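# nightly structure sweep
# worker-07 picked up a monomer target from the shared queue
# config: single-sequence mode, recycle default, output format = structure tokens
# input follows
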Amino acid sequence: MKEISGNPNLRIVSGMRPTGKLHLGHYVGALANWVKLQEKYRCFFFIADWHALTTDYADTGNVKQSILEIAIDWLASGLDPEKCTLFIQSHVPQHAELHLLFSMITPLGWLERVPTYKEQRDNIKDKDLGTYGFLGYPVLQSADIVIYKGNYVPVGEDQVSHIELTREIVRRFNNFYKWNGKDVFPEPEALLTPSPKLPGTDGRKMSKSYNNAIYLSDPEPTIRQKLKPMVTDPKRVRRTDPGNPDDCPVGSLHKIFSDQESIKNVYAGCTTAAIGCIDCKAWAADSLVKIIAPMQERRAKFEQDPKLAWDIVEAGSERAKASAEATMQEVREAMKLSPEYEPRMASSMLG
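# output follows
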């Protein structure tokens, strides 16, 4: 991850679409990093339910349940509402207002050239993505970020183009409008998050759609059961055949989750056939359980009373709303759209 200033006033903004329970891929790719960032900076993490509608607008029946599941996963992972603001996007209507205003100044060509727009239009054939919501979701994403005057956005490589678009929109807005002679928004920067390729139990990338995921909510027996049939080095046919952890999905799990001593033992045992794949999988399960066990402890009270999690993100939404409204007051004044009566209007009519 890029080194950034230790200034605690720097603002970090990021979000996730509510697609159901989170798995280890989400933890490695985002949550583990968020937990560290909340210790140093002012962080805003939101559940992007409006973004979920860009592709799943025809069926919204599971969105609210997914919001709750993600909130519990976040809290179980170690995100602390005393250290960061956790909230629901749609519960802060100022996001929609800024999105509307940004859409007025964003050239259509900027949106059409976003790489993920063409890529998803080509790859997702079972849904009609010829909507403004889908084309314009990077504009909403820009509003999500800068309404909190975010300085950095933790993202993977595939999202860097979206952050660059946000910077272009901010530059255009700041060029058109000033607030008390100053720019309204800072230009946010992408904070590249290392995201090692995490294999699922079938060797492909871990994904809910592949049915190969280990979920943060899986209890220990389920984790161990899922790892037992996990694919291994295809060249290791017999127990006595030496293997190579670099060619094995289980070896990849060890590199991400196991300590150096365990990894050393895996390489020594596998390459000499001193251990079998069953042993190696058991060691991998030990490492995963060590990480997930504290999450299970934190999760217990929220599973017993899910409203506790809902109340936390609702309270976070109120805090986010106050921050967003402060920004929008500056935006409205800069654009001469504030609701207050101004005496100069009368003098202009008389003059």
